[in-house]
Write a structure and sequence with these properties.
The chain folds into two domains: about 200 residues, no CATH class; about 190 residues, no CATH class. Helix content is about 55%, strand content about 15%. It is built from eleven helices and ten strands. One of its GO terms (biological process) is lipoprotein localization to outer membrane. It is a multi-pass membrane protein. This is Putative ABC transporter permease.
Length: about 400
């Protein structure tokens, strides 16, 4: 084992010494590699940075995953459970009729919000994006607009008030709620209160004339035998690729929907177009690079036939000579790659600084990950090694006696 390592290190030392001796030629070969690698890294960095930025914006904004049911229907718990269990579904919760999703919020007689939206939520709600969304019956999460009007903070209390007309008499139902969180303004811009689904269902029962003790309404019909039903659902897909199939499943049930599928498809189209452009340019550059390297290595072998024959005369076997040439190619490939990586770093800084602050382009990103860089390095070394093998097949045919003919 140690003998093999000694031979390997000897070949590496000879290869480096030879490259340094012909450093002008070595510099030209490394520069030709750098001239191909640097633009490809910049081009891929632009593709990855721009597309990743667009995809991140799609994923981080939960509204892009939302599928809105436009028409009201009559859905039972079995339908809702089936919807929740579909692999494309990220979050689904039943909603009541639109008229029953509004109520007044009161902090005191001077601070109130009329007809605020009452929205059901539970654990895993992507719009809220907080573990506090697992609410109990008397807890509420306020939107920033509602909290501002009510001048409330987490830990404060408010009253939820609804009215109904039962048998010609106007009745008012109230329930005290504890504020557990306030949403960021970017997540929901309208005055709203996010409550447990049981509370929203209680509002519908109250307005439909049923007894609702939680709201202080002890008159009306009994709701004990009432089968829960939903008019629609708050629905979010698991990811952007799941929006289209989930919306298609709903449309097959004749449920009208709306989503941001057009924006999602636009990002996918941009990714496809940039991928095609990058693939064509990378393929053309790779072919040119391989042709250039093959010519350079074959010319170098012809120039060093005597030196290679001398190595054979000194006892180097055919495999050792081939390994010697491949090691030289790997050294040159590494030098070309890291030089190209340095040029990419300079270009990346220029792109991000000059275009990132432009009002026309907005936030601009040119970036590759560590794994992208590692894959690019392996590809550069693989191409260099394969090209060197082409030259090595020619070099191993050189006979040791050729070194004696010129003495």
């Amino acid at each position: 084992m140690s003998l093999c390592l000694d031979r390997f290190f000897l070949l590496g030392k000879l290869a480096l010494s030879d490259l340094w001796h012909d450093r002008k030629v070595s510099l030209c070969v490394a520069a030709s590699l750098m001239a191909v690698i640097a633009p490809l890294l910049l081009l891929f960095g632009l593709k990855h940075g721009v597309v990743s930025q667009l995809q991140d914006e799609l994923v981080t904004d939960p509204r892009n995953l939302e599928i809105r049911l436009l028409s009201s229907g009559s859905y039972d718990r079995a339908w809702l459970a089936e919807l929740q269990q579909r692999p494309e579904t990220g979050f689904a919760i039943g909603q009541t009729r639109s008229l029953n999703t509004q109520a007044d919020l009161l902090a005191d007689n001077r601070r109130f919000v009329e007809n605020a939206e009452i929205i059901p939520t539970q654990a895993g709600d992507p719009l809220l994006n907080t573990p506090l969304s697992a609410l109990s019956g008397n807890q509420v999460i306020l939107s920033a607009r509602a909290a501002e009007r009510l001048a409330l903070q987490p830990g404060d209390s408010l009253r939820l008030r609804v009215t109904r007309r039962l048998e010609g008499v106007t009745e008012r139902g109230e329930q005290s709620l504890d504020v557990v969180a306030v949403l960021e303004a970017a997540r929901f811009g309208r005055p709203a209160a996010f409550v447990a689904p049981e509370l929203l269902m209680g509002l519908e029962h109250f307005r439909d004339g049923y007894r609702t003790p939680a709201l202080g309404a002890h008159n009306g019909k009994s709701a004990e035998d009432l089968v829960p039903g939903y008019a629609r659902a708050r629905l979010y897909a698991r990811d952007i690729d799941s929006v289209a199939p989930l919306e298609r499943w709903l449309n097959e049930q004749h449920i009208e929907t709306a989503s941001r599928l057009a924006e999602i498809e636009a990002v996918k189209a941009i990714n496809h177009v940039l991928g095609v452009i990058f693939g064509v340019i990378a393929g053309a550059s790779l072919v040119g690079c391989i042709a250039s390297l093959v010519g350079a290595f074959l010319a170098n072998i012809d120039r060093k036939r005597r030196s290679l024959a001398l190595l054979r005369l000194l006892g180097f076997q055919r495999g050792a000579v081939a390994g010697y040439l491949v090691l030289q190619a790997l050294f040159l490939g590494s030098a070309g790659y890291f030089s190209g990586l340095a040029c990419y770093g300079v270009g990346r800084l220029l792109f991000n600084r000059l275009l990132g602050s432009s009002q026309a382009t907005g936030t601009f990103a040119c970036d590759i990950t560590f794994w992208h860089g590692l894959i690019a390095l392996l590809l550069a070394l693989l191409v260099a090694a394969l090209v060197a093998l082409v030259g090595a097949l020619r070099a191993i045919s050189i006979e040791p006696a050729e070194s004696l003919r010129e003495l």
